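User: Run a structure prediction on this.
Assistant: Running it now.
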Amino acid sequence: MREWAVRHRAILVDLGLVAVAALDGVLGLYTSGVTELILTLVGAAGLLLRRRFPLVAVALALPALFLTGGPIASVIALATVATRVSSTTALVVASAVTFLGLTLSWDSIESINDLVLAIVYGTMTSGGAVAIGRLRRSQTRLAASLVDLERAREEETRLAAREAVAEERAHLAREMHDVVSHQVSLITVQAGALMVRSEDPEVVDTADTIRTLAATTLTELRQMLLVLRADGPEAAPLTPQPTLEHLGELLATEDLDVTAGIDLPTGLPQAIQRAVYRTVQEGLTNVRKHAPGARVTVTAEVEAGTAILLRVSNTAPTEPVAPQAATARLGHRGLSERAHLLGGSFRSRPGDDGSYEIELRLPLSGRARP
């Protein structure tokens, strides 16, 4: 029943207004004959047309206003004109005619005082209807503007998220370029050198095959990197990225109370090392922004001999949190994309006590998902 009422709210409102406008005719508040009763009911029924034809609703209500003095239908119709009609001329004409009818409907005008009271009555009643209608019109426009603004913000957030993913893909491409391309290039050079130094035809053929395959791999890798960097920042330099060797410097911060327990084997793939570093960096940055004074715990270990599990958790803030602008959580989105490309997962979860934790899980191989 409630859902039906919500869907048919406009119809219910119109029927209610018609009933109110018809009361003076049914109860004889302003009518004394059949003709006046009919005119009053016609004016009330005309309110059913007020949403689509507001000027017609005013025209149907005016005869009853001038003949009986009943103002209800005319005032409602005038307010609707002020709400729905954009023409200033039409609004001025409707307001003037309604004002005239209201003024003339005053009981008796036998003196200057009566005339002033009649004018005040007509002005306040018609002016109030126009003011309410214009206020409703402004409210409707404001609501529509807010809806458009919300849609624009959602679109902006979606584009920002896409940009964050594209930037992270570009970062991965740069890191692959720094490490993989360099290693494959060395393979090509060493294979070429072996071909020159060896006198064994079989070794020369094998070295040539290795060199050819390495060159082909390098070409395909560069094409793949172009795809990864297609939507990323073109001006980003191809510079070496931090690894686990730099993790100590990151954790040795003076503005945070950090307890670290890093138990990871040496020789991990460079992509995994950088993913761990970036996750810890993001976690510490979030603590600085959203949990000042909190204690931070960073743990990293090998789980079941197959995967790396990294957790960065913090307690509830102990100092006032500075106001922060609304964000689209782009750092988390970028880390999630990085983990997915490496065949792992990333998640974050707040605690009931105000704490917060992010978790990165990556396979030891660091191989991307197919």
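The beta strands are 257-263, 295-303, 307-314, 345-350, 356-363.
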